[in-house]
Specification:
Shape: globular
Number of domains: 2
CATH topology of the largest domain: Aminopeptidase
Distance between the termini: 56 Å
Largest sheet: 12 strands, mixed
Number of strands: 12
CATH superfamily of the largest domain: Gcn5-related N-acetyltransferase (GNAT)
Strand order of the largest sheet: 1-2-3-4-5-12-6-11-10-9-8-7
Number of helices: 6
Helix content: 10-25%
Strand content: 25-35%
Length: about 270
C-alpha cells in the first residue's frame, strides 16, 4: 500500500509592526536592516506586509504590498514561499528574488564598496539636496511621469530619512534621484531625467552626488537595482564604478511599468 503524502501550505500571517519580525541574514540578498526599513515604510503609506515563519519563529519569507499601486515585493529564497505569496494579492507588477517559469524581466543589482572607492567627478549641472520645502514640487514632478504612484511615499520617505537629489535647469527640476542610508549601507534609486534633458550627463551628475553624500556619511557600500532594458541607467552605474552582484525579477500581470519605484522596489 502506497504512502499518502500530505501537502501543506505555508502559514501566512500579517505583519503589524517590524518588531514582530525575526529576519535571518540569508533570507534575502538585502540585509535585515533594509527589510525592516522597507516593511516599516510600506505600513506607513497604508500598505500591507505578510510573513511566513519557520518552526522556530524566524521569517522564511516576507511580502510587502501597496494596494494603491497594486505592486508588491517578495523576499525569500524558497520557491514554496514564493508561490504562496505570488497569489496572495492582485498586482500590476511584482518583484522577487526567485526566478520561476512565469514571464519576468531581469533587474541587475549593482553594488559599490564605498570604503575602497575613490570618487572623483566634475559636475556639469547644478545639483542640490532637496529640502522639505521642495516636497510638493517633487510630488508634481513624479506624478507627471507616473500618475498611478502612491503620493504618500514622498512624505514617508522624507520622514524616514531618505534624501532626494535634484538637478535643475533654471528654476525647473530636470531630473532627480533618491537615496537612503540604513545603518552603514546606502541605496540609490528612482533616478529619472525628463526626456528633453537626456544625453547631457545629468543622470551621471545625480548618481555621483548621491555616492559622494553616502561616502561622506560613512556608508561602507551602496546598491541599486536596474532593469537590463534600461541601458542608459546601466551605463551610468558602471561609470560610477558599480558592478553587478545579484539579480531580482519583475513579474507582470498587466503592461503597467511605472518609472518611479520608491520603498522596497527597484530603481530604474
Amino acid at each position: 500500500m502506497g504512502l499518502l503524502k500530505l501537502v501543506t501550505q505555508p502559514n501566512v500571517s500579517e505583519v503589524r509592526s517590524v518588531s514582530d519580525l525575526r529576519i535571518p541574514r540569508d533570507l534575502s540578498f538585502f540585509e535585515p536592516t533594509y527589510l525592516r526599513h522597507w516593511v516599516n515604510e510600506v505600513l506607513e503609506v497604508g500598505g500591507e506586509s505578510y510573513v511566513v515563519k519557520a518552526s522556530d519563529g524566524v521569517a522564511s519569507g516576507i511580502f510587502v504590498y501597496d494596494a494603491r499601486e497594486k505592486t508588491g515585493t517578495i523576499y525569500t529564497r524558497s520557491r514554496e514561499v514564493f508561490d504562496c505569496f505570488y497569489g496572495l494579492r492582485p498586482f500590476n507588477f511584482l518583484f522577487a528574488e526567485v526566478r520561476s517559469e512565469r514571464e519576468s524581466e531581469v533587474y541587475d543589482i549593482y553594488t559599490i564598496d564605498l570604503e575602497a572607492a575613490s570618487i572623483d567627478h566634475r559636475f556639469r549641472h547644478e545639483v542640490s539636496m532637496a529640502g522639505k520645502e521642495d516636497v510638493n514640487e517633487i510630488k508634481r514632478f513624479m506624478v507627471s511621469t507616473n500618475s498611478g504612484m502612491n503620493r504618500r511615499w514622498v512624505n514617508v520617505a522624507f520622514r524616514n530619512g531618505d534624501r532626494c537629489i535634484v538637478a535643475r535647469l533654471g528654476k525647473e527640476i530636470a531630473g532627480l534621484g533618491w537615496l537612503s542610508l540604513v545603518n552603514d549601507v546606502g541605496r540609490v534609486h528612482s533616478l529619472y531625467v525628463k526626456p528633453q534633458f537626456r544625453g547631457m550627463g545629468m543622470g551621471e551628475d545625480i548618481l555621483y552626488a548621491r555616492l559622494l553624500w553616502l561616502k561622506s556619511n560613512h556608508a561602507r557600500s551602496a546598491f541599486s537595482e536596474i532593469s537590463r532594458h534600461n541601458l542608459s541607467s546601466s551605463r551610468v552605474a558602471m561609470k560610477g564604478h558599480m558592478s553587478v552582484s545579484g539579480q531580482i525579477f519583475q513579474y507582470f500581470r498587466t503592461s503597467s511599468n511605472p518609472r518611479f519605484l520608491l520603498g522596497p522596489r527597484p530603481s530604474v
